[in-house]
Write a structure and sequence with these properties.
Oligomer: single chain
Order of helices and strands: EHEEHEEHEEEEHHEH
Shape: globular
Number of strands: 10
Distance between the termini: 34 Å
Structural class: alpha/beta
Radius of gyration: 16 Å
Length: 175
């Protein structure tokens, strides 16, 4: 998938540069799990964004709700990526938050710049869509996401690339 790359770039599987973390939904019939202040993102929260950073969500869950489901509290600077129905839409969270099962979230390791990973995943969305399958709607599995290869330049170059792309995005958003 990648033409010639600079000699100091490598090709890495997502699993070797980021932890892939899914989400889930606490029982909606238990009121003790909801409206508790922990942001809980759904794909609609991502597709409705006017930018590329998410800091609030339509719904929140409680600590009991978080503990009751197989969702996780994601650290800031994670890449939230939709993985069902709409595959490959992304945002970077600026605060800790959880997501529903419509995500495969990427928690970057120290060797990957979160904004570089964000832009790389946007660029990879078409390929991810081709991997999706399902009877009701397409979905991509955690295993498939983990095994996707992306080009990874040295960290200093990742930061330069991400800075340029993020600056352009910010200018577009202001316009």
């Amino acid at each position: 998938r990648f033409e010639s790359l600079p000699h100091d770039w490598k090709i890495s599987e997502i699993a070797s540069i980021a932890e892939v973390v899914g989400g889930s939904t606490p029982s909606t019939s238990n009121k003790k799990y909801w409206d508790g202040g922990i942001p809980w993102a759904t794909p609609t929260d991502i597709t409705a964004l006017s930018g590329n950073t998410i800091s609030e969500t339509e719904d929140t869950i409680t600590k009991k709700g978080l503990e009751s489901a197989s969702t996780h509290l994601l650290p800031p600077k994670s890449v939230l990526m939709t993985s069902r129905a709409t595959i490959g839409e992304c945002a970077v969270n600026s605060i800790k938050m959880a997501t529903n099962q419509g995500f495969k979230n990427l928690v970057p390791s120290d060797e990957i710049e979160h904004w570089y990973l964000y832009y790389r995943m946007l660029d990879t969305a078409g390929f991810l869509n081709s991997l999706g399958s399902g009877s009701t709607f397409d979905e991509i599995s955690k295993t498939d996401v983990q095994s996707v290869d992306i080009p990874v330049p040295p960290l200093s170059e990742q930061r330069k690339i991400a800075t340029v792309l993020h600056t352009v995005d910010q200018a577009i958003q202001k316009t």
